[in-house]
Write a structure and sequence with these properties.
6-stranded parallel sheet, Rossmann fold, alpha/beta, 13 helices, POXB-like, single chain, 8-stranded mixed sheet
Length: about 350
């Protein structure tokens, strides 16, 4: 994740410029930046967004309404590239927006180490800065802010991110996440299809499910929010097979809530209604810090006419799976978990 010293230098310059707030997606590679923002005691407020694309749109609106610099923050991967549409709007209208991206350097030659990032953000930003050295972090933020104000249009500051830490997901009450999968192994109908969200640990568990299970997961984890769209496509391609989506709460906020509307609209035409969305609800998009309210995923499912079950105790897991897999309609299994 981003260097804590560099993160503090970045936030210190934002505070010196009296930037009132930063809109961002609180992914793991951006965690030190979020911590540094929280440490200001409200001097620079962090506004978490779902999905990451909303952060850039908010920054654009801030710049348009106040005339000041709108600042957005994104973690590595899909969250970062989600900023591009909003940054393009800032480019078209000549608005002062600073995008801060905690991105992994791609494996490439030394001369083209940041090539993909530079090409993507360079297409919509006036300039792309790289804060690699913590000692120069404050100077680069200063330069980026001055460049944004000089305009017209947005600029980007890339902060290098290291390897993300492992997140431990446990069911409330202390039961390990493997309990959820052990109960599933006993019940998963064959031949099932399992789509996995952007969490490597979920993919590892999915690949341990019984033989004959088709697992839709990218090496190292799919993009955040990918599981439910993939599950819907799988159900349409093989409507007679039971389909399961393993979703993080971050992915559910990003895409899942909207795609449940797609499920609610389409499932009456399916010959087999078995589509189960398992949400690991950590109630937080940022490790160790609750930045968002507890979203009632099961309640949202019921509001749409689907089946919804909330699980907050380990002894309820088995019965919850029984109900989800035998329901007469798609089901959201909302498993309350600790990050």
């Amino acid at each position: 994740m981003a260097d804590p010293v560099l993160a503090e230098a970045v936030v210190a310059r934002l505070a010196a410029w009296r930037v009132p707030r930063v809109f961002g997606h609180p992914g793991e590679t951006a965690a030190p930046l979020v911590e540094a923002l929280s440490a200001t005691g409200g001097e620079v407020t962090f506004v978490p967004t779902r999905p990451g694309a909303s952060a850039a749109l908010m920054a654009v609106a801030h710049a348009r309404l106040t005339g000041g610099v709108g600042v957005c923050l994104a973690s590595a991967g899909a969250s970062a590239y989600g900023l591009l549409a909003g940054l393009d709007a800032a480019r078209q209208h000549g608005l002062p927006v600073l995008a801060i991206v905690a991105e992994h350097p791609p494996v490439a030659s030394a001369d083209d180490r940041w090539g993909p990032v530079d090409r993507s953000f360079g297409a919509v930003c006036r300039r792309v800065f790289h804060a690699v050295d913590p000692a120069r972090g404050a100077d680069l933020v200063e330069a980026a802010l001055r460049d944004a104000v000089a305009g017209p249009g947005p600029v980007c500051l890339v902060v290098p991110a290291g390897a993300p830490g492992r997140r431990r997901t446990v069911v409330g009450g202390g039961a390990a996440a493997r309990l959820v999968f052990e109960e599933l192994r006993l019940r998963l109908p064959r031949p099932g299809i399992v789509a996995v969200d952007g969490e490597p640990n979920l993919a590892r568990y999915a690949h341990r499910l019984p033989p004959g299970t088709t697992v839709l997961a990218e090496p190292g984890g799919a993009a955040t929010g990918a599981a439910l769209p993939a599950a819907v496509a799988a159900k349409l391609a093989a409507p007679e097979r039971p389909v399961l989506a393993l979703v993080t709460d971050d992915g559910m906020r990003s895409h899942g809530l909207a795609e449940l509307v797609t499920v609610a609209r389409g499932w009456p035409q399916w010959p087999d209604p078995r589509l189960v969305v398992l949400v690991f609800n950590t109630r937080s998009g940022h490790p160790g810090r609750q930045l968002a309210d507890d979203v009632p995923y099961a309640g949202w499912a019921r509001l749409l006419g689907l089946h919804g079950v909330r699980v907050d105790r380990p002894e309820l897991v088995g019965a919850a799976w029984d109900g989800a897999l035998t329901a007469d309609r798609p089901c959201v299994l909302d498993v309350v978990a600790a990050p």
